[in-house]
Design brief:
Two copies of one chain form a homodimer. In chain A, strand 5 and strand 6 form a beta hairpin. In chain A, helix 3 crosses helix 4 and helix 14 packs parallel to helix 18. The longest helix of chain A has 43 residues. A four-stranded mixed sheet of chain A has the order 3-11-10-9. Chain A folds into four domains: 75 residues, no CATH class; 231 residues, Orthogonal Bundle (Clc chloride channel); 223 residues, Clc chloride channel (Orthogonal Bundle); 140 residues, CBS-domain, CATH 3.10.580. By secondary structure, chain A is mainly alpha-helical. In chain A, 52% of the residues are buried. Chain A contains 28 helices and eleven strands. The two termini of chain A are 24 Å apart. Strand 9 of chain A pairs antiparallel with strand 10 of chain B.
Chain lengths: 757, 757
């Protein structure tokens, strides 16, 4: 049992100055307040004391869920309480506004997704050649409209375009343009991120998880971030680096939703905002994988939206937004397939045989092991980058690494194409009528293919471990799928080879006796491998299975997919309980509580409570002047402070609120004495009455409470702190950061990337 | 703001004697304790004080979630802590046991579902005729193996079988056998329920919801209930009463899971049990609708499994069990269609037109209104039944009402078949190649059909309102779908008629100009109508949409389904916020907290706190003897009592535990004094030390806490009671029943069917 460090009360998320200077800060408090009052109207009489003042949140703080949810309910009620026709119309208008934003979010995300697909496809093809009748056509569009059998002459490789005829020159030109463009794409993406939107790098899912659980980080959702992340993502994917667009698309969706919220003036509620963000995140997953149900389940399982007090409403909004986004994508239909299913699995044998469980279980275990390995390598790479000179040269790092990636990729045939093409080809069953992808279906080359696939998987794993964490938008889903698909296909080929070599062996007795009839479907093994690998990396369960079967349409084979995800998660959990997002959250030390069960081994809250003699406390009986109080606040930059008067605990005051309140007044009359006690203020009105700022700490616990109960309360009630008292006397304090520390301190590299280092 | 009645501390769920005398009671406490100790093994040293003793739960009480979850974690840890190879093997064995039970549950539920389908089909067909070569074949099996166009002579109607040739005789014979068998089926179902398993009636979902939230009601899950509910359900459905098998199947699933749990000796944890029940309930929905994802979402949305501290594990178990159950059903394939989709929608126009939104919105609003009407009629019928002489004659009521239903059904052609057949025919588009269902596709009879459909819907609504609540197993899903489908089809026919009559009107300009091409798909209108009606009755959202599209396979049209569910829910909520299950829970007054947001209008806990002078308290300073204490317990049969010593609050003691503890000791030495104070017991060991029974009430609140926070804590933390104190002095008490009362008191007919009346 570690005890939190002495300075755990200190706000570990106070951002550096660059962060606070961000141009697109939350609007000023005054404006907010005015709007809120206008909305409250004549119903404001009903506002109880604890709802009187909107708390001030600095970037990096956590919201006060109880206050926010209370205020939202109050606003709702006041809408209904207005007199006359306004009482009828206002709720309907508010309602219409909410749903307009949701529908627009869905349509917007679907459009962005489609647009990104087109952009990526074009940029990717540009590395190999161009369309003769227009630079802005990709290969498929350029060659469309041809009859069957006709050769496409409109699309020319760069060597054709520059009329280079000798073989060596062709190879050199092609490879150098390929590498040069890859470097240019990746470099410009990194430069954009570095210059305009420092938060647009990486996947974004860890931050979204933290934000949804109450973290305040508005700069992460700014319009600039939206633009740069979307453009940078297209460039990064097209550069051929080992990354995917799925995770970042969730971030882009949330930025888009936040922009809409601001356009529609939904600024007054932090909880409301988070409900919209949850819906947008579902829609992001829905568009990324063509999987509306997967999106909803992702929000439920991975983003843990159950912390909202009305989760079925949140779930419903997420569902509607996801479906609208998916329908929009299908309607725009960027590739003219009019299908949502990205990697259609076809030609799979209708039934699977019992002996196939053996290779599948091996694959599943392998997925768990390699998933854990990827997580560890990735975390180690991130920590190494942070502590070495590379940290100072992020753009150079991206340029150099994209050059390396491009050079390696050009050599290994399966890596040369985009990962999504690789995956869809690996998922395809061999069909003589349809042509052969790089000789993958050539039965005489089975051993060579297996070797090549394993090499590809290995290289991809190493590349991904470094790439995920560089200063460019990067998702980990697609590379993981690609690694798993390579391994799965390899094992599938091996099984097929075995079965064809020994068709009469008793294990294969379930196969049809005719050796020309296919019994083993290596393409489906690739699906199993991909699921297993994803299970090992993300540790998702239900949402992962749903995403995989919506991604592939392999509904009939959901049972083996389920088994592989389950086994790979077990194996992975044996090697370290945390999925990759959890590890990143812990490394960046966001105030996010893992929703898992906590076992307290019989300890009590005593273990985490910071005893009263270690706390910085405001002593009301000393009757500080405003100036003294401001000095005190400057000296101790904690989240907040317990307030006591003599022995008696008065409550807890939030630093941001106190600073905001005193800010304007201290210049006028700095020598005026302050008090937090209502009794004192009532008797003597020379005191400045601060009691309205006081959170009266109505929820107090005794130190004998089991630790698990404390953790559970923080997890489920979204608390920021709990005061411990006995007989009215303050005995200690536990803040959310103490609990976060308690739950994450055993992770490898916890706080290694935290900004406060 | 109502205040709870004076006797709200009283246990309102203490069952009548018949209940306690139930044969299949939970095994005795002693056995339980022994098993628990054996399991704990050498790890029991680690057990903290608050885990020392298993609480005793009487039927009708609520479990102590905190204790149960703590004990489960302790057991888990102790499994790992065992020495040597046992420490390796025990967790794996435990794990294997859990998953064996889950897999068996899934397979079992799939099998039961398939078996019920076959039984219902056969019994239903028996009402019209029999197979010449064997009584135990249904019509389809009897006539299978015929060539196309061949007439089935093996299946004979009763008049053919008895060689009645004249028309009047035929009609009389057919109708009287039809009615007689219907009455016989329904009557025997009621008799079974009445005689062997009084809890096997009704749908069971309200009780499952209450049990999952912590209510103790083991008799409801007994093997007898399983058998009687399954057989009775088949008889009831076959009798042609207006009821469905979906809800009861969820109950049957839970009974089956409970049986397996007992066979595998999983008796020691109430939370563990509830996790299995949640998985079984998902699987029940999965089998009932052929909708594995719908099952999981149903558990999430309707059964509110988020109250478990590890909900993603619960969700995953539910998902696996659902899929296994669905796969089993598909494998057994009772009807030889090898499809999970029950009501396949085919031939729907690929795209829908904007003008169709108008009829769909009308349908959706109608669904909301009629859904609310059905809820109200049903509740009124239940209350009327309870307060009239009918309550004394449940079997007679069923017999009489099934005769009425059969007579009416025989007259109205659409009601004569089983509801599921009606629905699947209403969902089908007209296809000239496939024959016509009772002239539904005859364009010249459109007005007649509309009239007949509306009449059918009306009759069905009235029949259902009475049927749902009689002493037979009965679900409300299918009748609701049937009502909605009738209305939808009627409006679809009307729209089609309109479009065909005015093909050139501007509203219909989206339709192809050729009038022979179908533009409006009335079958899909029936789907919309069914969704809307279900939305109005159950007030489900995501799970309902998923169930409908898994039920019909109409994935392409999910957007209109979604809109109709949404609108019908809004309209319904305007007429009363509660779905039918919530109303029944409130009427039976189960201790179940609606998970909805609660708005406190600025009140504080003061509103619900029972002040200390109204409480029955054990005063430790009076040093009662065991005999006095037993007398006290006999006199005040509350759930539990706060214990104070002088001014100081010691804690809370549960009545059942105290009774169980004192039970054996009081006979030996009734005059021995007791104390709950550790200090006293330590000094003077003539006292019987009861401090281990004390819940030390570590969580105390002040009365100034906002009411919403108290409600929220009860909802999310699964508390049974909260003590209020100020400065160490007891100021009051709030129990779960106070909060349930607060949240449900405004419902119509709250507690109207409660057993304590």
């Amino acid at each position: 049992m570690q005890t939190p460090p002495e300075n755990a009360q200190h706000n570990p998320w106070s951002k550096s100055s660059t962060h606070n200077a961000s141009v697109d800060e939350y609007p000023t408090e005054d404006l907010e307040g005015a709007e809120a009052f206008e909305l409250l109207g004549d119903g404001s009489l009903h506002a109880s004391a604890h709802l009187s003042k909107r708390p001030a949140y600095g970037e990096g703080s956590s919201i006060d869920w109880l206050w926010e949810e209370g205020s939202e309910r109050l606003q709702q009620r006041n809408l209904h309480l207005q007199r006359g026709w306004r009482g009828m119309v206002a709720p309907i208008l508010n309602f219409a506004k909410i749903w307009t934003v949701l529908v627009l979010t869905g349509v917007g995300i679907g459009t962005i997704g489609a647009w990104l697909d087109v952009l990526v496809r074009w940029l990717g093809d540009l590395r190999e050649g161009r369309c003769t009748y227009g630079l802005f056509y990709n290969q498929v569009t350029c060659c469309s409209g041809l009859d069957a059998g006709e050769v496409c002459t409109e699309w020319q490789s760069w060597s054709q375009y520059f009329h280079v005829s000798f073989i060596l020159g062709q190879s050199l030109l092609q490879s150098s343009i390929y590498i040069a463009l890859a470097v240019a794409f990746a470099g410009s993406a990194a430069l954009f991120v570095r210059t305009y939107a420092p938060y647009a790098f990486h996947t974004g899912i860890p931050e979204i998880k933290a934000i949804l659980s109450g973290y305040v980080f508005d700069a992460f959702l700014s319009p600039w971030t939206l633009l740069i992340k979307a453009v940078g993502l297209a460039l990064a994917v097209a550069s051929g680096l080992s990354l995917g667009k799925e995770g970042p698309l969730v971030h882009v969706s949330c930025c888009a939703a936040y922009l809409l919220l601001r356009l529609f003036r939904f600024r007054h509620s932090e909880v409301q905002k988070r409900k919209f963000l949850a819906a947008a995140a579902s829609a992001g997953v829905s568009v990324a994988f063509g999987s509306p149900l997967g999106g909803v389940l992702f929000a439920l399982e991975e983003l843990d939206i159950t912390s909202f007090s009305n989760e079925s409403e949140v779930m419903w909004r997420g569902f509607v937004t996801s479906v609208i986004a998916a329908v929009t994508l299908q309607y725009i239909d960027p590739f003219g397939t009019s299908k949502l299913v990205l990697f259609q699995v076809t030609g799979v044998a209708d039934t699977w045989k019992a002996f196939e469980l053996v290779p599948w279980l091996i694959l599943a275990a392998l997925g768990g092991v390699l998933g854990s390995l990827l997580i560890r390598l990735n975390a180690a790479a991130a920590v190494f980058r942070r502590n070495s000179f590379i940290h100072e040269w992020p753009v150079l790092e991206v340029v150099a690494f994209s050059a390396i990636t491009a050079a390696i990729s050009y050599l290994v045939v399966f890596l040369r194409v985009q990962s999504s093409d690789l995956v869809s080809n690996l998922f395809l069953e061999c069909d003589p009528s349809k042509g052969d992808y790089h000789g993958l279906c050539n039965p005489t080359a089975a051993w060579e293919n297996m070797f090549l696939l394993v090499i590809t998987a290995g290289i991809k794993l190493l590349l991904t471990a470094w790439t995920f964490g560089m200063q460019i938008p990067a998702g980990i889903f697609l590379p993981t799928i690609a690694i798993g698909a390579c391994l799965g296909r390899a094992i599938g080929l091996f099984t097929e080879l075995l079965q064809r070599s020994y068709p009469t062996a008793w294990v294969f007795s379930a196969c049809p006796p005719d050796p020309t009839v296919r019994c083993v479907s290596p393409g489906f093994y690739a699906v199993i491998g991909a699921s297993a690998m994803l299970g090992g990396v993300t540790r998702m369960t239900v949402s992962l299975v749903v995403i995989v079967f919506e991604l592939t349409g392999a509904l009939s084979h959901v049972l083996p997919i389920m088994i592989s995800v389950m086994v790979s998660k077990w194996v992975g959990d044996g090697l370290g309980k945390e999925g990759i997002y959890t590890v990143w959250i812990a490394m960046r030390q966001y105030p996010w509580l893992p929703p898992d069960e906590f076992r307290d081994n019989g300890q009590t809250a005593e273990q985490v409570v910071k005893p009263v003699h270690n706390l910085v406390i405001i002593r009301d009986e000393e009757e500080p002047t405003m100036k003294e109080l401001t000095g005190f606040l400057d000296k101790h930059s904690f989240h907040g402070y317990p307030v006591v008067r003599g022995e008696r605990l008065l409550g807890y005051v939030n630093r941001d609120e106190l600073v905001a309140y005193l800010g304007s007044l201290v210049a006028e009359d700095g020598q005026r004495k302050c008090t937090f006690s209502k009794d004192v203020a009532a008797v003597d009105n020379t005191f400045l009455n601060l009691s309205s700022l006081l959170d009266e700490a109505v929820l107090q616990m005794r130190k004998e409470v089991p630790l698990q109960l404390v953790v559970n309360m923080f997890q489920k009630m979204n608390l920021r702190h709990v005061l411990f008292s006995q007989g009215g006397k303050l005995t200690g304090l536990v803040t959310k950061s103490d609990i976060v520390w308690l739950l994450t301190t055993h992770f490898p590299h916890t706080a290694a990337l935290s900004e406060r280092r």
